[in-house]
Amino acid sequence: MAAANHGLIREGDWISGTSWKDERFIGYVEWTDGNGALRVRITQCDRDEAVGFVTEARQSKVTRLPEPDGLPVDEAALHDLIELALQTRDQAWFEELSAMLPSASAQAAGGRKPSLPGPSGWKAPASRFPFGFNMENLR
């Protein structure tokens, strides 16, 4: 299945796979060299100590995860995403998320739920891993 994704994986994509250290992980691509090497920020891993760190993997050892159409927003999710935007130093995404905070409060009063914006240049929403996957689904 990974072969079907060859050439499609790019920076910002959420992936699952196996690192060069033989760790099963879920994370997002921070960098690719164009020759199949990826640098991945781990968000879930079979080795808990690896979560939050960067590892390297080959495109042939990973699978691109599906992108959701949009997720409902609540204030707690916005605060988590704002924290992620600060950690990744993405000012545009931080400002976009911060602007949504008043609308999250209005939503609590009965308004419609907005969709989450993604970081600059990304199509998919990015949070710690909003897609409902966990490591148990990969075993």
Helices and strands in order, then pairings?
Layout: E1 14-18, E2 24-32, E3 37-45, E4 54-58, E5 62-64, H1 75-87, H2 91-108, H3 135-138
Antiparallel strand pairs: 1-2, 1-5, 2-3, 3-4
Helix pairs in contact: 1-2
Task: Output the strand order for the largest sheet.
Answer: 4-3-2-1-5
Query: Tell me about the biggest sheet?
Result: 5 strands, antiparallel
Supply Rg.
16 Å
Poorly predicted ranges (pLDDT <50, ≥5 residues)?
1-6, 122-131
Number of strands: 5
The helicity comes to 25-40%
Separation of termini?
A: 16 Å
Query: Helical segment tally?
Result: 3
Please state the structural category: alpha+beta
Mean pLDDT: 74
What pattern of helices and strands is seen along the backbone?
EEEEEHHH
Strand content: 15-25%
Which descriptor suits the 3D outline? elongated
Any key phrases for this structure?
139 residues; alpha+beta; 5-stranded antiparallel sheet; 5 strands; 25% helix
